[in-house]
Design goal:
By secondary structure, the chain is of the alpha+beta class. The chain is built from five helices and five strands, in the order H-H-H-H-E-E-E-H-E-E. Helices cover 54% and strands 13% of the residues. Helix 1 crosses helix 3, helix 1 packs parallel to helix 5 and helix 4 packs antiparallel against helix 5.
Length: 201
């Protein structure tokens, strides 16, 4: 059987593509939200803006996220509790961006066999990372299970970010009642913190 048809190889390929596809939904959400933040408050469904398309053309995920969260705070006029929730979500977005970069820029070895035994060689992903200023080849250790788990977390995160965007736009348009804390909460425990809501526990 050709290696690309082996079930474990196909599943790993599929999980890589799945994560990249879902991540693109996060990037698209932040881009569209910035478009709305910059539109007149009287426009519920702002029309396309060619100048914004030009600005976004070369914007990578990190500056896109930085702009989104900064604008959300600015237009939403958030209270302290909501700012804390937003800041934690911003850090989680950066973690997803970092994982996506590792996934996209890693050197993958999938489907190889031992020439002598014919046995399958476990897949690997390596990337050159700077450790103490010295570039080193690092085994990323990304597995199919890791990717499916990351997709589950990412989908919840997207729902949370969508709520941030909608709430801040509502507040920008004059409705000051909705708050991030209406459906999201910041949890701090044993030196860790995370945001709950929309399926996250």
């Amino acid at each position: 059987m050709p290696y690309e048809r082996r079930p474990e190889v196909r599943e790993l390929h599929n999980s890589i593509g799945l994560y990249m596809t879902v991540f693109s939904e996060l990037a698209s959400l932040m881009r569209r939200s910035i478009h709305e933040f910059l539109a007149p408050t009287g426009e519920e469904f702002p029309p396309p803006n060619r100048l914004l398309d030009v600005m976004f053309a070369n914007m990578t995920a990190k500056p896109l996220a930085d702009s989104f969260y900064s604008m959300a705070r600015e237009v939403g006029n958030l209270e302290a509790t909501d700012v804390a929730i937003k800041n934690r979500l911003r850090r989680e977005t950066q973690q997803h961006i970092s994982f996506r970069n590792d996934l996209a820029h890693a050197e993958w070895s999938i489907g190889w066999e031992n020439a002598e035994t014919g046995g399958a060689i476990p897949p690997s992903s390596v990337r050159i990372k700077s450790v103490d200023g010295v570039p080193r080849l690092k085994d990323m250790g990304i597995t199919t299970s890791d990717l499916y788990r990351a997709v589950r977390y990412l989908r919840v995160h997207i729902d949370q970010v969508r709520f941030v965007a909608r709430t801040c736009r509502d507040r920008q348009r004059g409705n000051r009642d909705p708050r991030l804390a209406d459906q999201l909460a910041l949890v701090q425990e044993k030196g860790r913190s995370w945001v709950t809501g929309f399926g996250a526990e």
